[in-house]
Amino acid sequence: METTTDHGGSLVRGAGTLLARLAAVAAGLLVMSLLVVTGSRAAFNASTSNDTNTFAAGTVVLSDDDDGSVMFDLTGMKPGDNATRCVNVSYTGSLAADVRMYGAVGGTGLATYLDTVVDIGTGAAGGVAMDCTGFTASSNLHNSTLEAFGTAHTDFGNGAGGFAGVTGPVTRSYRVNVTLQDDNAAQGKTATATFTWEAQNN
Question: Which of 12, 128, 180, 199 could form a disulfide with 62 if both were Cys (CB 3.0 to 4.6 A apart)?
């Protein structure tokens, strides 16, 4: 028996299979193209906006007119010696604030024998000389010893009220008077004091 092989038929069948595959790929590409076109199609939309918003912080600004000078520099004091100084404190912040005065008192005990009066008012000449000319008192903030002031008024929380709820610019004059008591126990003692004015918005 003789066996023959039909190579021509195989080629035909192979070509048909290739054409079918190419047709399937082309169909797939067509579907993908349709999907891309459909997915990228514009949609209806709408929007609205608010104009540019702005934010700015307020200020708390406090200053005095003593140009860094010390209020008192007294040595060799004797019973009855007295000194008075005035400082003008100005609040120029934009926020409503309270201003209070407090102090830190030290030394070797003389503060116990220094009678101290602190008044608040307006109109003092102030300046580097801390001149009280023109001062008009509105209220008393302290009338005891220097030691008592330092004990009672140690920070803003318990500070002596100056002016409350103010919005700048506002200026108040502070008058501080000290007198050495006639007490032999004061001999040789010293005292130091730092007065501070602080503003906090409310």
Answer: 199
